Automatic annotation (TrEMBL):
Its main location: membrane. It comes from the Eukaryota. This is P-type ATPase superfamily. NCBIfam families: ATPase_P-type. The lineage of its organism: Eukaryota, Viridiplantae, Chlorophyta, Mamiellophyceae, Mamiellales. One of its GO terms (cellular component) is membrane. The keyword Translocase applies. Keywords: Membrane, Translocase, Transmembrane, Transmembrane helix. The keyword Plastid does not apply. Gene3D superfamilies: Calcium-transporting ATPase, cytoplasmic domain N, HAD superfamily/HAD-like. GO terms for molecular function: ATP binding; ATP hydrolysis activity; copper ion binding; P-type divalent copper transporter activity. It is found in: Membrane. GO terms for biological process: copper ion homeostasis. It comes from Micromonas pusilla.
Amino acid sequence: ACPCALGLATPTAVLVATSAGARRGLLLRGGDVLEASANVGVVALDKTGTITEGKPRVTGVAATGNAVNADVLRFAAAVEATTTHPLAAAVAAAAAAAGEKTPRAKNAETVPGRGASATVEGKRVFVGEPSWVESAVGAEGGTAAALGAAAAENSEALGGPAAAACSLVCVGVEGEGVIGALALADRVRPGAAASVRRLQDMGMRVVVLSGDRQPAVDAVAFELGLTGADAVAVGGLLPDDKAAFIERLRAEANGKGVAMVGDGINDAPALVAADVGMAVSGGMEATAAAAGVVLLGEGQGGEKYESPGGGVGQAADAIELGRNALGKIRQNLGWALAYNLVGVPVAAGVLLPEYGISLNPAAAGAAMAFSSVAVVTNSLLLKTPGDETVSAARAATAPTSR
């Protein structure tokens, strides 16, 4: 026997876990990420594009007396066309549906977490968070709060979500003030609530951090079942605010790790601040670069697998995989250490003088090989999150014999 198995205990489990993760749509950047995932006790979720589908639609429009809905849509679509924000496609689709041609925007600027501005038809137009727009252009046309409330009420009247659940975007023109507002709605991903319950059943504390307005965040948290006295769902956060909140959660976690799950550029600072940053695929490259785990959405390779709940479900998969991998590493180390504590002295002839027991070279070589094979085999038996889902899918698609 020899201590070779000790050297195989960790890398074989890590290799099997990262390969299994890829088949489940989890891109894991090394063994340290697996270890950190296993220690996670708090999971922070971004709202837009992570909990929700990331496919918002305009459900309500309101304009001041000096403007019409068409002006609001046209200006908003022009400015949003210069950004990669999830709301951009929704505004463009609403403008197209209304028959409005989107004018060209120039000199565009983006303020992360707030909005964007550009020169449209010779006017400086600001589109984004209501208070930011109002501070940029003033309230000569109408107050952002009043216009936002009107847009949300229009949404409810048109069969959209309740006013409190809407996200609001205001449109302002320099020298004219706030000219209108848009109400937008995005559906919570199917299975997201079940995935949150799964995280809680695993002992996780789940919080929601978003740059959206507080009523919209509260509505999503309610749909997820985060309604207890200890539930945390915070809106109105800038990128740096999210990172600071993550640091606060880490300080309160009593030695446990904090995972942040997000998809937008606004989430990048929080992903870096977290013990484990998890980026939902389809977001910005900078977000994926800041993350230790990339949630690809569906499995890679021959097996088709998609975790229920999208990024939320895959975050649970990653944490479970990390725990299972760490368990295998401990099993491997325990087995290899115990085996070699017995085998190496016997092979060295410790028992020969007293008991006449020894191992010939062939037996010692076989024992050495057995210890290594046992470690590798144990690693290959790693339980992968979603095995039951894949098995069920195979059974459902298997041809039946007549």
